[in-house]
Design goal:
Blueprint: H1 2-11, H2 60-80, H3 82-93, H4 101-112, H5 121-147, H6 152-157, H7 159-190, H8 198-209, H9 218-247, H10 257-291, H11 297-309, H12 313-337, H13 350-364
Amino acid sequence: MFASLLEAARKSPFHGPLTPALCDTNEPAPALTESNVQPIQTIAASSEPEQTYSCEFGSAKYFALCGVGGLLSCGLTHTAVVPLDLVKCRLQVDPEKYKNVMNGFRLSVREEGVRSLAKGWTPTLIGYSLQGLFKFGLYEVFKVGYSDMLDAETAYVYRTLVYLAASASAEVFADIALSPFEAVKVRIQTMPGFANTMREAWPKMVQNEGYGTFYKGLVPLWGRQIPYTMIKFACFERTLEMFYKYVVPKPRDQCTKGEQLVVTFAAGCVAGVFCAIVSHPADTVVSKLNQDKSATVGSIVSKLGWAGVWKGLGTRIVMIGTLTALQWFIFDGVKVILRTPRPPPAEMPESMKKRLEAEQAAKDN
């Protein structure tokens, strides 16, 4: 499936908003510059009139470099907020003991010491690095592939649906990579005395429950992460587009790389708030499932009630909002460092502009 999507991205005859058109000619392909890069992408290219890139947009190397950016952005940011994540998980699984964020921090430090706040950092680093690799890398693959199934105008008009479909498809595979490490992380963080490190927890879970325990929370994880990722990418793409259209005081191609990264961070903050709200109930269920091996989704929802599944939302908004903004900032920054193509936000195809102008002129006459 991936091979066919890559092939479609390279050979598509359409000049859609996600890929540049390539025609069969005897002349060599033009060098990739900002002026001839048309695809939708997460952030703008350099303000310099011409840029030498390390790869061609839509190539296997391009998708691989996007995956590297995702690996670093997700792995580093999730690991950095492990203390907050630990308290958030404890608020979700034991709300009677941990009343709020500050209370959760105080109790955790009092009972287990300051070092306990770093519990679960290893499975977090490994799991979310793998998730970021697949999430960002495959998002680009699916976005290009799905767009190339459409003509230029249709791809532009329905670009939000392209973002949603591409991000959902990528997250399916990303969560398969994440699930075992998420299970280990939650077990370490929410069951005092079970294990202090991944090296202790992994064999103990295999011995007591079998390898199936690592994927017990996969379906709820999909329920949490797929809506989260759909909002994360679609909201970011459209917010970025609106920022450059209505908020930024000068055209995107006149902004420096630093200014573009600031816009990226701001758009990521907006997307992160919506992500946290949409995915929070499923996040609570996942935490409870990984803590209690006998629990089911139905029993957890019934026990917690409507208010219970929203416990810890404020903490999650702060954590996910900041996290999402930093992820987009790091991802875009890595693309700058690696000289990966960074095409501008979506723009209306010229054919569509001319058609609409002609239609308007006909009405005026």
